Amino acid sequence: FPTVTVLDLPFVKTTAAALLPVLQQRISDRQNTFVVTANPEIAMYAHEHADYRDLLLSADFITPDGVGILDGAKILKQPLPERITGFDTLQALLAWGSDHHRSAYFLGAKPAVIAQLKPILARDYPGLVIAGIRDGYFQDAAPIVADIEAQQPDMVFAALGFPKQEQFIHQHRHVTKGLWMGVGGSFDVLAG
Ligand code: UDP
User: Fold this and answer.
1) How far is the CA of 146 from the centre of ligand 1 (A)?
2) Ligand 1 mean position, distance from CA 79 (Å)
3) Exposed, middle or buried: residue 74 (CB in 10 Å: 0-12, 13-18, 19+)?
4) What CATH code is assigned to 3-190?
5) Ligand 1 neighbourhood includes 159 CB (under 6 angstroms)
6) pLDDT digits (tens, 9 = 90+) for 90-99
7) ipTM of the complex
8) CA dist., res. 109 & res. 112, Å (int)
9) Ligand 1 lined by 184 (C-beta under 6 Å)
């Protein structure tokens, strides 16, 4: 996809309807993929922290998750077509994963949220294979990364908040040949 640079980040100039099949194809092809859905908060933080920005630049796709990013692109006279949010992308990938019996690993949120999330995922996405589901309040990442590597999930969703989730993904994404995406507070929302 062509990109438009806002606050030093190259955002994909596309729609969710066009991006999703590309992500699904990469998952089917076992192509390692890092998706960042950057809201204005993330973009501002990246603008002020060069190390975080460099890490985001290693992503395969950066999408505009907020009207603030669209406004920035418009001011530059290079408009982006629409918001592509982390939550919508997560839901779309879970629905597709359920239809195609794909596997997903859920990492993040509080233990009580995870306990609520499990039956909701089983109910709403019956065909989805839950490769792992664990809270985001761990001391040692090593056993978690080893588990992700052993499970080889098609998709890993990290709900650790930024910048932690992108740092985690950048550091560990190559243990699978699947898709990795930071989803912020999405597990809290899904759990209701
Ligand atoms: N979180 C976590 N581990 C941490 C810090 C945060 O799992 O060490 C979770 C937190 O429980 C919440 C999510 O990360 O589910 C962060 O949500 P928030 O909406 O603050 O993230 P943002 O969208 O701002 O990145």
Assistant:
1) 22
2) 30
3) middle
4) 3.40.50
5) yes
6) 999 999 999 9
7) 0.94
8) 8
9) yes
